[in-house]
TrEMBL record:
The gene is fliP. This is Flagellar biosynthetic protein FliP. The keyword Cell membrane applies. PANTHER family: FLAGELLAR BIOSYNTHETIC PROTEIN FLIP. It is found in: Cell membrane; Bacterial flagellum basal body. Belongs to the FliP/MopC/SpaP family. It comes from the Bacteria.
Length: 222
């Protein structure tokens, strides 16, 4: 009788453990979009590409689907070494039952922390450390993700806006020149955007603008 009760107790414990693991897996999957956006290079890339479209004043060309799709593939390209390290150090041992779930989480967070810390400004990280009234971390492993992720996102947005500003400058010059020419010709009722748009597209094509933008984005993560 005791053996029978013990069998069902062990079965209940196994079922509870499996249910918890499934719950944790579903939680991670639900947070996957946020992880992709805030813990990778996606935010910087998609913001810069959006700035390019706004500077060109081409409305919805290229469409949002193209910009997001290109940003996703560029993100996978930039993050490939990090994803490979996560797979080798965390996922493969976890699936082989060589490490526990807690150990896999720790091993999985290290490559992301290394990537994010490389592109996080010290000032942004110190902001969240001071706000949380936490002690100064002695090593990268001591920095919690709750502080590093928002600091990294803040740094990425600032960097993206700096790059976007540099993209805007040549197109702004074209707009100013076209507006001055139209005003000097007395054509004040003609919107300068209609005239400057073909020149901006022509300039962007002649200098191979998309190549330069993508090259600058990739170099900014090197």
């Amino acid at each position: 009788m005791n053996d029978f009760v013990q069998f069902f107790s062990d079965s209940d414990a196994t079922n509870v453990s499996t249910s918890i693991k499934m719950l944790l897996l579903l939680t991670v999957l639900s947070l996957a979009p946020a992880i992709l956006i805030l813990m990778t290079s996606f935010a910087r890339i998609v913001i810069v590409l959006s700035f390019v479209r706004t500077a060109l004043a081409t409305q919805q060309m290229p469409p949002n689907q193209v910009i997001v799709g290109l940003a996703l593939f560029l993100t996978f390209f930039v993050m490939a070494p990090t994803f490979q390290e996560v797979n080798e150090k965390a996922l493969t041992p976890l699936f082989a039952e060589e490490i526990s779930l807690d150990e896999a989480y720790e091993q999985m967070s290290i490559p992301f922390k290394e990537f994010m810390s490389k592109h996080t400004r010290q000032k942004d990280l110190e902001l969240f450390i001071r706000y949380n009234k936490a002690e100064q971390p002695e090593s990268l492993e001591d920095i919690p993700l709750t502080m590093l992720v928002p600091a990294f996102a803040l740094s990425e947005i600032k960097t993206a806006f700096q790059m976007g500003f540099m993209v805007f400058i040549p197109f702004l010059v074209i707009d100013m020149i076209v507006a001055s020419v139209l005003m000097s010709m007395g054509m004040m009722m003609l919107p300068p955007v209609m005239i400057s748009l073909p020149f901006k597209i022509l300039l962007f094509v002649l200098v191979d603008g998309w190549y330069l933008i993508i090259k600058s984005l990739l170099q900014s993560f090197s």
